[in-house]
């Protein structure tokens, strides 16, 4: 037997209650936790790793018990032997103060030469926290508390947080279920402690059931051994498999619900009160297993994480943050409560710091970039279970979209040809991704593994200090820090990346962008590119040979662009364009043909001179314009466009052109006979005879009336953008004179109005 699993129980053997009741129950509780018990004081005493001292009212009556107790204390002081004290029928104060019957029996040995040694040992043990049964505590609870304490002392790195937080939650879930066969599901991310919790529940409950079964790594075991062999291993000793019995079954790591159902249906009939516990990384599997309640295992809190990491890294419990190296706090924060990550990183740093002293920081950075095989295996097993769609979505989130708005990411992924609404839900159900405040989050441990899986092979060319991508035909997405690009490198290789869909180029050192301008002049983009994200783009236009037919989004804030292209391009797929704070931008007239465009963001483009005609862009929803500039904008646009100035919505929005079109000329009216004289002239000369109006007179009157009514409509329907005002003041109809519509001033004014109808000047 292994010494680390052995415990010696020291008690008064003359006490029948202890010998026949308490000690057997404690021994059984230890056995359920994998701890062996040595009851005979002479049986391998020195091989035990811990001792339980049970003090009762007659314990100190026996010189034999006192000698046993004294040897235990000596081992504790000399070899770090673990000691747990239990007070049964006496209080800890009786031992500390040596009073009552306990003291009376001890003083019977006062003449012994060992009396002073016993007295000192009792004083020492009285300072150790012990277990004393309270009035409202059952014997079962008392025994379980002792067993937990001893287990945590023997295995300080195991089950941290399980007994204090998680186990009570499972007990509550069981209590809330109706009497019958109860099913509970336990799920969570890889390495979070599902198996540890399930084993703890099994250890605590197994003594109350007639048949018990714990199948660890159920999926792998089922695939290797098959149903028949697995049933024989666990239930071959059943006298009558058809007899209904109270059963406790734990199936750990179930990935196919049908395997679990076949196994459960193959061996025994469950009587009322039976419990089935299923653990899985996939919440959907638990639903298919028809569990009544599910419990999601959360990570360790900061206190628990500190305890686990300090035991793994330093071999002792270091709770005070000021005693831990700064690197340790970084590792704890990086692990984010995941027990597997805390354990592996702690042990790796502990084992390698002796090989490379004072290089712990370098060791940790290497571990983050290239995760240890224990972490790789557990995460990759979940990754391998995903569909191709889910794998692609997971890789994109790991590289580009962690912390991003889930709705925006779903839109981007859908434009990439993926199915995000189903895929993201499955990733959340598999505990690989979480959604917090409508943003996608991924545990750093999972993210590092997924990046390692999805990262293309790269080799570094020392001459150019640029990472040259191998296997370029397979690359779908690139995120490039252009600050590290050598000025002489040729970036035309991008064009040969036929599967490249997503390109993000940024500068971690913005001051270096001008130094890299020469290298970027050779840039050539592939035809299949769908997303172009480039902060601080340093050139005046995009590459002329780039065909943007598949481009869905242009995201180029703070660029040096003056125009998009020199000429017309096919923008049939373009949906969103963001050129915020591109202060040299003059015009974006190419967008007038982007019929699928939904959003235009030109906020902060201070030198923008014109805005494209957007009357054909029926899918356009949002337009954000800069303030304080002279921009020429057509008044005709789709009715549901939200207009913004520097990011702020305009409350008093202009009415769309379609709402009330101006009256069109009725040329037939020109042939009708009607007077050009005003009603007041008729009143002055009631007897006058009006002559028949000529065609010229009728045409001039109709032009005058149409112009007046059109301007009234424009003043009513056209709007003001804050300080940008339509200059209608040039249209002064009072200067029109009857019969003189074709003089120079009239012609200028009518021409001016025609220009206004086609294009409005904001100043």
From TrEMBL:
Annotated source species: Noccaea caerulescens (Alpine penny-cress)
MF GO annotations: ADP binding
Swiss-Prot/TrEMBL keywords: Leucine-rich repeat, Plant defense, Repeat
GO annotation terms (biological process): defense response; signal transduction
Domain spans labelled TIR: 1-154
Tree of life domain: Eukaryota
One Pfam match: NB-ARC
Cross-referenced InterPro entries: Apaf_helical, Disease_R_plants, Leu-rich_rpt_3, LRR_dom_sf, NB-ARC, P-loop_NTPase, TIR_dom, Toll_tir_struct_dom_sf
Protein name (record): Putative WRKY transcription factor 16
């Amino acid at each position: 037997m292994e010494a680390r699993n052995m415990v010696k129980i020291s008690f008064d053997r003359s006490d029948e209650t202890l010998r026949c009741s308490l000690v057997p129950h404690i021994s059984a509780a230890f056995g359920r936790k994998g701890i062996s018990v040595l009851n005979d004081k002479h049986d391998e005493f020195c091989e035990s790793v811990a001792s339980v001292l049970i003090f009762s009212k007659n314990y100190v009556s026996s010189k034999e018990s006192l000698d046993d107790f004294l040897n235990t204390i000596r081992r504790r002081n000399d070899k770090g032997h673990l000691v747990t004290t239990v007070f049964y029928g006496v209080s800890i104060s009786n031992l500390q103060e040596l009073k009552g019957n306990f003291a009376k029996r001890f003083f019977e040995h006062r003449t012994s030469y060992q009396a002073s040694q016993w007295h000192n040992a009792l004083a020492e043990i009285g300072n150790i926290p012990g277990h004393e049964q309270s009035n409202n505590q059952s014997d079962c609870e008392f025994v379980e508390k002792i067993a937990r304490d001893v287990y945590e002392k023997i295995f300080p790195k195991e089950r941290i947080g399980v007994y204090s937080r998680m186990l009570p939650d499972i007990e509550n879930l069981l209590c809330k279920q109706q009497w019958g066969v109860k099913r509970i599901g336990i799920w969570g991310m890889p390495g979070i402690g599902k198996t540890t919790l399930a084993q703890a529940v099994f250890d605590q409950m197994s003594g109350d059931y007639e048949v018990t079964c714990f199948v660890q790594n159920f999926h792998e075991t089922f695939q290797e051994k098959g149903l028949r062999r697995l049933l024989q291993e666990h239930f071959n000793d059943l006298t009558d498999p058809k007899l209904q019995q109270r059963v406790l079954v734990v199936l750990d790591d179930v990935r196919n619900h049908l395997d679990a159902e076949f196994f459960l249906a193959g061996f025994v009939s469950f009587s009322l009160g039976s419990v089935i516990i299923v653990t899985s990384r996939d919440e959907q599997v638990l639903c298919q297993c028809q569990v009544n309640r599910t419990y999601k295992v959360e990570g360790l809190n900061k206190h628990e994480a500190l305890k686990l990491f300090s035991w793994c890294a330093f071999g002792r419990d270091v709770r005070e943050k000021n005693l831990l190296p700064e690197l340790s706090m970084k590792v704890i924060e990086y692990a984010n409560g995941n027990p597997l990550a805390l354990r592996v990183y702690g042990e790796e740093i502990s084992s390698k710091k002796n090989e490379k002293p004072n290089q712990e920081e370098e060791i940790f950075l290497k571990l983050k970039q290239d995760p240890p095989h224990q972490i790789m295996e557990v995460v990759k097993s979940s990754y391998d279970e995903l569909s191709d769609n889910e794998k692609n979505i997971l890789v994109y989130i790991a590289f580009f979209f962690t912390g991003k708005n889930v709705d925006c990411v779903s839109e981007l992924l859908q434009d990439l040809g993926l199915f995000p609404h189903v895929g993201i839900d499955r990733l959340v159900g598999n505990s690989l991704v979480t959604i917090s405040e409508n943003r996608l989050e991924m545990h750093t441990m999972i993210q590092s593994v997924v990046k390692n899986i999805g990262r293309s092979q790269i080799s570094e060319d020392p001459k150019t200090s640029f990472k040259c991508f191998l296997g370029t035909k397979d690359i779908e997405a690139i995120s490039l820090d252009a600050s590290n690009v050598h000025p002489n490198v040729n970036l035309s290789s991008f064009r040969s990346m036929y599967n490249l869909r997503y390109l993000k180029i940024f500068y971690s050192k913005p001051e270096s962008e001008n130094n890299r301008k020469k290298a970027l002049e050779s840039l050539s983009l592939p035809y299949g590119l769908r997303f172009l994200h480039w902060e601080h783009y340093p050139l005046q236009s995009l590459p002329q040979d780039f065909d943007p037919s598949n481009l869905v989004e242009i995201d180029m804030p703070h660029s040096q662009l003056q125009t998009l292209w020199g000429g017309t391009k096919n923008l049939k797929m373009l949906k969103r364009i963001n050129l915020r704070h591109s202060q040299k931008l003059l015009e974006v007239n190419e967008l007038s043909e982007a019929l699928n465009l939904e959003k235009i963001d030109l906020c902060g483009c201070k030198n923008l001179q014109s805005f494209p005609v957007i009357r054909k862009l029926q899918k356009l929803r949002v337009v954000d314009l800069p303030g304080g500039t002279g921009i020429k904008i057509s008044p005709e646009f789709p009715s549901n466009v939200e207009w913004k100035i520097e990011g702020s919505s305009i409350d008093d929005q202009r009415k769309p052109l379609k709402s009330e079109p101006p009256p069109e000329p009725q040329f037939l009216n020109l042939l009708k006979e009607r007077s050009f004289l005003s009603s007041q002239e008729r009143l002055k000369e009631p007897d006058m005879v009006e002559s028949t109006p000529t065609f010229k007179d009728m045409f001039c009157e109709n032009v005058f009336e149409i112009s007046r009514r059109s301007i009234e409509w424009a003043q009513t329907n056209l709007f003001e953008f804050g300080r940008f005002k339509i200059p209608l003041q040039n249209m002064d109809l009072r200067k029109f004179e009857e019969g003189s519509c074709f003089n120079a001033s009239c012609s200028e004014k009518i021409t001016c109005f025609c220009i206004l109808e086609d294009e409005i000047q904001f100043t």
